[in-house]
């Protein structure tokens, strides 16, 4: 039988042989027999046209999603792409790719986080990431894969410019003192000393550290920009690493001899509250490190290399924190050439 119900399921399942010898097996996505039969007949007709007339087979969103994730495996943002694709599959599923419109995509953009147990409003930048994933997938389908005649044109929404969140050295010392777990305190302190991303610190292995030469390195497959990063270790970073000697055979940082594969966000937020610091994520430790560098006179091109950023534009976000090199030009717009501030005369 071409349509049937599987044991333990009310939904109909389609199963038939194509004229070309292939086999179509998929859920009909409905419990209505008439709707399932209509979809079966449609798929069978399309299979006949492909085999007899040379038409291109129609591909479903599910097929495109699975191929896209296979091709993206190993990318730095793969986990985020999996989350985005999972959401879009819940919307479009077995829909034919060529029936999905621009308006449908834009009106179904998520407003809230889709992770289990998380209920928060998504920022415009996060919504844009969901849009970027489906746009890239549909562009691949229309380009390299040749599954679509053309992809819908999807433009990202304008994102409001946000301030760089950083704290002072006194605030950082208060925060570290407020952290009640040694391994979390050491990881945070190492972040302030090196500017490394959280995952790079947690996954740092002894094979990536040379204490004698006071340096560490991040391999290309571990870096967000997929380029290796050389990390010079200052005296504070060296002291932190030395405290970890003998605690774990492979990883530098550990919790009771076990590599900390997670970050306790609740404890982190509680420590921030005790230290009187608001709206401070762990990633802001990296912003703080970069801000201290700029304020200390580190050139932006050197900071770009130290932080492993892929573009100069990313480093320019911190340039406003040290405008000292512009001071000689400030006097170019004085209203008076005499020393001191100009005298202003009231008009009667």
TrEMBL record:
Name of this protein: Site-specific recombinase XerD
Positions of the Core-binding (CB) domain: 59-142
All copies of domain Tyr recombinase, residue ranges: 162-331
Gene Ontology molecular function terms on file: DNA binding
Pfam families given in the database record: Phage_integrase
InterPro entries: CB, DNA_brk_join_enz, Integrase-like_cat_sf, Integrase_catalytic, Integrase_recombinase_N, Tyrosine_recombinase_XerCD
Keyword terms of this UniProt record: DNA integration, DNA recombination, DNA-binding
Keyword DNA-binding among record annotations: yes
Biological processes annotated in GO: DNA integration; DNA recombination
Keyword flag DNA-binding: yes
Similarity comment text for this entry: Belongs to the 'phage' integrase family.
Organism of provenance: Paraburkholderia caballeronis
């Amino acid at each position: 039988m071409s349509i049937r119900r599987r044991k333990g399921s009310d939904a109909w399942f389609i199963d038939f042989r194509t004229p070309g010898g292939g086999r179509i097996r998929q859920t009909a996505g409905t419990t209505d027999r008439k709707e399932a039969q209509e979809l079966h007949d449609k798929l069978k007709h399309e299979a006949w046209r492909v085999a007899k007339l040379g038409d291109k087979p129609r591909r479903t969103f599910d097929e495109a999603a699975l191929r896209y994730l296979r091709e993206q495996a190993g990318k730095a943002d793969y986990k985020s792409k999996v989350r985005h694709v999972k959401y879009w599959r819940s919307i479009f599923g077995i829909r034919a790719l060529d029936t999905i419109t621009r308006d449908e995509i834009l009106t179904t953009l998520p407003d809230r986080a889709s992770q289990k147990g998380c209920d928060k409003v998504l920022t415009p930048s996060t919504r844009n990431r969901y849009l970027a994933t489906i746009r890239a997938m549909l562009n691949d389908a229309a380009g390299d894969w040749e599954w679509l005649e053309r992809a819908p044109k999807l433009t990202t929404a304008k994102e409001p410019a946000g301030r760089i969140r950083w704290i002072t050295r006194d605030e950082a010392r208060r925060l570290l003192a407020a952290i009640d777990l040694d391994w979390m305190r050491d990881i945070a302190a190492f972040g302030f000393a090196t500017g490394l991303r959280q995952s790079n610190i947690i996954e740092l292995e002894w094979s990536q550290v040379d204490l004698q030469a006071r340096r560490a390195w991040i391999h290309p497959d571990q870096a967000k920009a997929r380029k290796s990063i050389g990390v010079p270790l200052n005296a504070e970073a060296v002291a932190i690493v030395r405290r970890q000697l003998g605690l774990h055979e492979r990883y530098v940082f550990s919790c009771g001899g076990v590599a900390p594969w997670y970050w306790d966000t609740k404890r982190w937020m509680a420590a921030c509250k005790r230290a009187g610091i608001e709206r401070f994520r762990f990633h802001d430790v990296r912003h703080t490190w970069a801000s201290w560098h700029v304020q200390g006179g580190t050139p932006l091109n050197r900071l770009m290399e130290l932080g492993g950023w892929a573009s100069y534009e990313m480093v320019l976000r911190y340039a406003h924190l040290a405008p000292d090199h512009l001071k000689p030009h400030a006097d170019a717009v004085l209203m008076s050439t005499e020393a001191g501030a100009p005298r202003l005369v009231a008009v009667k």
